From TrEMBL:
GO annotations of cellular component type: plasma membrane
Assigned protein family: Belongs to the 4-toluene sulfonate uptake permease (TSUP) (TC 2.A.102) family.
Pfam families membership: TauE (PF01925)
Origin species: Alkanindiges illinoisensis
Lineage of source species: Bacteria, Pseudomonadati, Pseudomonadota, Gammaproteobacteria, Moraxellales
UniProt entry keywords in alphabetical sequence: Cell membrane, Membrane, Transmembrane, Transmembrane helix
Official protein name in the record: Probable membrane transporter protein
Classification via InterPro entries: TM_pro_TauE-like, TSUP/Inactive_protease-like
Amino acid sequence: MPDIFQFILAGIVVGFCVGVTGVGGGSLMTPILIGLFKIEPHVAIGTDLLYAAISKFCGSMVHAKKLNIVWPIVGWLALGSIPASLGTSWVLEHILSGSNQYKAILTMVLGFMLTLTGISIVFRHRIEAFFKRRSKSIASAVELSREQIAQLVSRKKLQVIIMGVVLGVFVTLSSVGAGAFGVMALILMFANLPMIRIIGSDVVHAVALTLVAGLSHMSAGNVDFHLLGWLLVGSIPAIIVGTLVSSRMPEHLIRRVLGITLLLLGINFMINPVKAKPAAPKPQQHAQLIVSTSNVKA
């Protein structure tokens, strides 16, 4: 096992990137745990979900204080995502956990979500610019009132619930998607909402979803608290530092490098998923194997 300094360093790197670019820690931390530290996929995903819930909580408080949250969006998203997350966790624990393809399924889903996240990060500004142009043609120049926003969300509540279900399933399976992918989906549905309100709503929903998914993984024994603690020791100060220096950093360049890296990692995980190790022979079977080998030699 890598020593604690390597875990702290990983937390620092991910936390700093999150502070500078706003890219969610889940899309960065899980590949690091699996690819560099060789943590089992289900443990990496479960640990990272709780890591994401804790690390995003402070950001959600800032958005709440600045009134950047559209609570009806959060509520309808949660109505779809929380039951979907609990159902997915039950399937993982009671059905898929005994399958030989368990790890391969998790890493292939992780690869798929990393690929989508990488694409959304690389082309985020173009996507945002497109929908800003679109929003100008479908919305008035006057900022929407609270009642107008509530009516807008109410008209699209079914789509929001369905989106929540999709996020609940994929975030629980991969720990990726609650951040960048969630924001892109909300932009598609609410192009005439201010970007800061979309981001604030997504962050608050991500805290709730990753917490529920992380606790479900914890009940299945998929969380390494020793690893979680040291990751947080490194990442929380680094997020603060990254946020403070973000205005002086080449954010566009860093975001593009991260997006391309996640895209390549995602493709690699889909092509080369982590496979389960062959089960070790039981003592009785091992003894029989030794006897049969001795008879052959004789």
